[in-house]
Description:
Blueprint: H1 2-45, H2 54-65, H3 79-91, H4 102-107, H5 129-143, H6 148-163, H7 171-175, H8 182-185, H9 195-205, E1 216-218, E2 233-237, E3 240-243
Antiparallel strand pairs: 1-3, 2-3
Helix pairs in contact: 5-6, 5-9, 6-9
Amino acid sequence: MNKIIRVSALALSLVAVLAAAVLFTVQTVTRGDASAAYEQDIEAAVLKQGSRGDDVKTVQTKLKRWGYYSGNVDGIYGSQTRKAVEYFQRKNGLKVDGIVGRATFAALGMMEQAGQTGGSQNGADSYTNSDTYLLARCIYGEARGESYTGQVAVGAVVLNRVKSSQFPNTIAGVIYQRHAFTAVSDGQINLTPDQTAINAAKDAMNGWDPTGGCLYYYNPATATSSWIFSRETVVTIGKHVFAI
Length: 244
């Protein structure tokens, strides 16, 4: 009798061990699958050296047009593309890691890739040719002596004001608001913008904001308003200080 009991106990122990082994194996596989899926999601969320595809081409095209990249637009994220991304990140106050993640996607105006909704609503397609030309005139009158990034930044401030409840909700309303822009006051708004200013206007409308959401900018060497100096500085680009 005792022998039968011992055999039964041994059999139960073996069953328990086998069940535990099966459970461990299933859990390990599940964790492995989840880990692999997570890694795929992370990979899909960024572009880095070794990445390929249309998004890489878009990044290369933008960086080339803006003067950060001089290589081929081939959709291959090589060392030259990485260096261009680092250059862009450095100039725009982003983490300099050569990886196009959420923040860099947003700075490039690639809103869908950045995981932000409504990108097409805020893109150039939602503006008229007259809006683009007026914004280009403002950029040319206010910042034609600045770098290309500095010109886009001025355009971005105008568009940030359009979106803000503190200002008029149209480009024309913002630009022609009383005493808002020197170029309007001194008549430079009526100058014919060059292609650089037009491109800068389009890039700002497509979502590139080197200021990170600023509503104000000024040249500290020529500004006379004590109020503007009280605004919180976010970034300085060329001769202009951008603030909120």
